[in-house]
Every structure is written in structure tokens, then in C-alpha cells.
Amino acid sequence: MQHSNVTLKDQQLLKNFSYINGSWHSSANEISVTNPANGELVAKVSNAGIAETELAVKAAKSAFKLWSSKSANERATLLRNWFNLMMEHQDDLGRILTLEQGKPLAEAKGEIAYGAAFIEWFSEEGKRVYGDTIPAPSGDKRIIVIKQPIGVVAAITPWNFPNAMIARKAAAALAAGCTFVVRPATQTPLSALAMAELAERAGIPAGVFNVVVGDDARGMGKVLTEHVDVAKFTFTGSTGVGQSLISQCASTVKKVSMELGGNAPFIVFDDADVDAAVAGALVSKYRNAGQTCVCTNRILVQEGIKEEFTTKFIAAVKGLTLGDGLTEGVTIGPMISELAVADVNDLVKRSVAEGAELVLGGEPSELGGGFLAPTILTNVTNEMPIASNEIFGPVSPIITFKDEAQAIAIANDTEFGLASYFYSRDIGRIWRVAEGLEYGMVGINEGLISNAAAPFGGMKQSGNGREGSKYGLDDYMEIKYLCMGGLDK
Ligand code: SIN
Fold this sequence. Notes:
Layout: E1 18-20, E2 23-25, E3 30-34, E4 41-46, H1 50-69, H2 72-88, H3 90-101, H4 105-125, E5 132-134, E6 142-149, E7 152-156, H5 164-176, E8 179-183, H6 189-202, E9 209-211, H7 217-226, E10 230-236, H8 239-250, E11 255-259, E12 264-268, H9 274-286, E13 296-302, H10 306-318, H11 338-353, E14 357-360, E15 375-378, H12 385-388, E16 395-401, H13 404-412, E17 419-423, H14 427-436, E18 441-444, E19 463-464, E20 477-484
Parallel strand pairs: 7-8, 7-10, 8-9, 10-11, 12-13, 12-17, 13-16, 15-16, 17-18
Antiparallel strand pairs: 1-2, 3-4, 5-6, 6-20, 11-19, 14-15
Helix pairs in contact: 1-7, 2-4, 2-5, 2-6, 3-4, 3-6, 4-5, 7-8, 9-10
């Protein structure tokens, strides 16, 4: 490939053109993909726009006929091939991901396995799209319910999981019998294009999986949300952007699913296993340098256990190694950009000005402007900027609370409702708190809840729809009711 500084075992995985209708499309201009660890150029990718997006929708529309008429078993075989190829090329895919996104290589390879797991899961689940028969109100009729693929699915996906967020959507869509067009984040297009190369090798027919890379977010977004041939739109990203995309979808009444922002509380009750809570908070907060929608955003600690938890948590966070994700032993990489670091630093500074205490980190990193050392703040209140905003960075604000009712009230005092976590060993409390939290996902004595078998999604302004699990296919299907009449003798 031209214009790249990346060496792989299989160099063909590095692509610099959009993938439309089974071919690679070049455009006049290029986008530079840079390594967040050092700002160096990773590769240049053709900059597609509205015309290519329209072409991709057209290709997906004409491929739908063939793809939706294949049997579930035929689709399963091709998806299984894709899964196998992703796992076979896990090292290269992980390397591409680290270079363009920054996360440590082990974590990047973990993301490839996580993304591939959705393809495996839905390759199997696609065979279990069951309908229903319903007793009819009169003897001369029968009621039958069938499920059918909705049509062309358009997706916009984020930079924080350049592989898994595409896999999670595309696997469900393709297994259901839909065709797919994705616009990946311009910071991380290489992972998406490598997935397209493997989809082609897997035998997935032309037009079924299309990737359009371009920096005209508004223009391309308009095509994907307003095109009459797109039946369903799915987005992972911020609540603000999600809200405007939903309104654009209104003009053609598209089915939408949205995986939006979060403000996850991580509650540690007096009766918790503190060491387990520290380990859970570490993974839930600092995974991907704090840049996930399900990352812990606020740690709520009950008064009686505050000293012990805070001391142990600071020691554990000090054990993280910040650096370039390709360096052996690094456990936390750079943030996506210097701008992202500046935004998080601003939340920290404003909260310190309001009385929060900086007990770890907070200073500029000698590694460069794209790095933010893991940071901990105590004496935080729920009203401070660091608690009321989605941080999306490696900062832990610690808030103390008196009792269970107060913990639930603080936890729910946000417009978000994606992930939440709590640690307790009291079975009664476990049920009360799990039921009281207004969140789509609750980790109970567990800090890592994402997997292909579970329904991922949020309540309130964190979105709608569920990804993964047996529920994940429904977002890509229509329920059709058949009424058979005239059955009297
Ligand atoms: C996200 O940040 O949107 C996804 C996180 C996950 O899948 O665990």
C-alpha cells in the first residue's frame, strides 16, 4: 500500500481506499491517519464523500435481494469464515488498531477477539430467528408471526473501539439478512478497512458490507440518516451527536438504535470486598485510558470504607504503566488527541477550583501532550464538572456517601443511564440496588461487563436498542403478522 509506515505479517490488510460493492474506491483527496502516541503519520487514506456514500447505499440496496434470500445457514458459514479470519490475523489487526487508536497492544488484540466474538455469536444466533403462532379470536383464522430483515443498515462508528463497534453492529445486521454501510471515525479507518478485506476473503458477497471513509461528517451523515433506501440507522457516539442524527432519521421514519454517552457510577458499600472493588474499579475506569462509554465516571464510596478503599486504589493506579501502546509492559496508552487531554484537564481544574482534592496525577506527562497520567480526585461532589460530565479520560473522582438510599440517589442523578457498578456482599442490598439503579447495565461485584452474549445498551439519554445477545437481532428485523382467514369447513 502507498503512503504508510506500517509493517505487518500480511501487508494486504492495510488498505487506503473505501470499500464499496466489493471494490476499492480511490478519491481525489486524502486523510492522514496519525499515531496518537507520537503524532507520526501511520497512513494516508482516500477521502470519500457524499457521492461514494450514495454509491455504497445503492450497492447495499441491490445486494440486499441476494443476501436476504440466502438461508441462515449459508450466511452463518460466511460469517464464521469472517470470524476465523479475524482471529487468524489477530496480531496484525491488533497492531493496526494500536497504531491508529493508541491502546496497548494486548488490549488491542483483546478488542479484536471481542469484535470477532460478536461475529461468531451472531453467526450462530442467526439460525434462531423464531416466529410465533398466536391463538386467533375466531375459529376461521390463524395468526402467524414471522421476522424478516429490515433492509439496508447504515452505521456511524467511533474511534474508541475501531473494530468491535463495527463488528457488534455488522454481525447482527448481516446475520439477520441485512446489508450494511458504515462510516468509521476518520481517526481510525484502517481497522474498518482491514475488516472489509477480511469480509471479502471470507466470501461475503459484493455490496453486503461497505466501508466509506471520509471527513465530511455532516454530508455523509445526512446521506446515511436521510436516504430513502436506508431502512435502519445505528450509531455509537456522544449523546449530543446522537440527538441530531435521530432527528435527521425522522424524515424517513427510520428504525434507529443508539449507543450514546454514559456517566457510570461505581458504588462501594461498607460491606464490600475492598480488594475486589479496587480491582474492578481499576479495570472499569482505566481500560482504554478511560475512553469507553461504560467506563466508571464517578466512584461512590461509603464513609466507613473510604480510607481503606482510597489508599488501596491509589496504590493500584500507581501500578499502571503509561506509554506507547506498542511498548512491552505498557498498560495505559495515550488519549486520542491533545485536544481530548485538554478537555479532561479542564474538568479537573474546574473541579479542583470548586474544592476537589488532587491526590494522584493531574500534571502534564513528560511523554507528550497526548498523554494524561492516571489521575484521582477526592472530596468530589456530584455537582462538580468532573462528576456531572462524561469524562472520557483516565480520571477517577471519588465521592463519599452515608447510606444506600443516598448512594442510589446520587448514582441516578444524571441524564445518562448506560452502565453502572456496585460492590456489596449483602444479598438483600444487591437486589435493592440492582433494581434501583436507572441503568441499562449493572455490574455487581464485577467491573468488566461487556461480552457478545449480553445485551449492551442504555436507558434515559444513553440511547436505545440493544447490541449483542439474543436481543441484538431484533434491532435489525421487522416483525410481520400474517392473518390467514377463510379456514371454515
Ligand atoms: C463503548 O465505549 O461504546 C463500548 C464499550 C464496550 O463495548 O465495552
